[in-house]
Amino acid sequence: MFLQQFFSRNISPPITDADDNDNNDDRSSSLHSQDNPISSNNNHHHHSKQFLIINRLNSYCLLSEERRLQRKINQKIEHELRKEKRMARRNLKLLLLGTGESGKSTFIRQMRIIHEHGYETVAERMEYVSKIHQNLLTTILTINHAMQLLNIGYEDPEIDNDLKKSLASTYNYNYVETWRQWLNNANRNFTTKDDDDDDHDDQTIHRLQSLRSYQLIIQMVQNRLPSNLYSLFDRFWNDLGVRQCVQKRNEYDLLDSSTYYMERLNEILDDSYVPSVQDILHVRISTNGINEYNFEIDSVNFMLVDVGGQRTERRKWIHCFESVTTIIYIVALSEFDQIFCEPIVAAGFGGDWSHRYSNDNHQDGINNWQKPVNKLAESKALFKTIITSRWFRDTSIVLFLNKFDLFEEKMLNGPNRLEDFFPDYKHFKQTKLSNNVVEMAVDFILQMFFKQNPEQFRRHVVYTHFTCATDTDNIKIVFQAVKDTIMEQLLSKEIQIF
Ligand SMILES: Nc1nc2c(ncn2[C@@H]2O[C@H](COP(=O)(O)OP(=O)(O)OP(=O)(O)O)[C@@H](O)[C@H]2O)c(=O)[nH]1
Ligand SMILES: [Mg+2]
To answer: Does ipTM exceed 0.95?
Structure first.
């Protein structure tokens, strides 16, 4: 409900200082032509014969000047023709950008649902079972490991052991073998006891956890988890220690889908489980490389480009920067209390904690691989890089403030306060009369992002929407609005078509 309330007011461009003359190539060229010797000479031509003589003397110079002007006009005509042609074909390229886990691919899934009857068949949905089960197992292993690190005990101390035993027996042979191979490849000095398989499994799991490398065991979930894990997983999820650990989820890297799946364990681990569309929208699969999706909507071809948002993926972005009509930049609002945790940070989990909540680290540049940073601050810095990039001088920008549902929940019931991570919020709050905490907080975050759009770049009108990428109705309305804005901009030639 709150989302709808916000939605209705957000389409007006909050930063509209777009200076029409600024950086408008067409207009600046016509301005030039007024100072041009040709135009001024023509002016005088009617008034002075004397000037005509001088004019003839200068004819060589004028001709080349004229040619230059002519060429400019030709170029302009060609540009317009290309534009018209593209308009006629109605091909629009929309680039989805944002940090890892912000919700880009979820948005693409929504497009498939809304415009292509996506995931309607059981067969299509069944393809997601193993991914959902992998998310489930990642959740359990992550919490289990975080409990050690945060020094939180299980209410039922047997759970830890039962978990190790049952996972080891489920993934016994393949898993141990793959693990050994990985260790050999990594040239680690690893000695194993070959005589006792049980010990062997325990030892392997222990090392697996201590290295925070769940990838191997997770890759073992090729198909689905056995349904007999249900009672153990259910015990785990209801354990008071686990609940406490989940409350502190901002101190480690827990999937956003964790709670959603754990609350549906019963269905998800059932042998006859068929994922629902909602289950598919919640699955976390990180994107590698650049993926293009084409949709035809009202006889307009939309090419949506989805990229991987994690740091290691961002170096590939430049390959899709050409001919972009609109950028949709996605921010996860709910990340305000989370730390940025990519491998180098994860490996040194206990590392330099003094920086973990700092939101100034982005000043070191987004290429800083060492210090853990606040996730929202990281996204803000990336937004600035994008909005000030020469690549996107003529690209329209749409900002999605996503994960509104999680954000609202955190603001109303979460253990952390926005001002603990963004101290400026304290002052901001005092200047507001509203009692609505969520409204104030999103206003603050919005202002923070707008400030990334410096004066000289204010030709960019930034359109904003509050979104929940897992909510199909919301995305349907938002995308309709985005589409209308783009079409309006195209017709009024506010934005470039290439
Ligand atoms: N509750 C909730 N979950 C969301 C929302 N948007 C995305 N998610 C979840 O957040 C996780 C990450 O979403 P993705 O779409 O994979 O993020 P991404 O931006 O594509 O990430 P990369 O591919 O790594 O760049 C998934 O589990 C989504 O289901 C939202 O608005 N609300
Ligand atoms: Mg993705």
So the answer is: yes
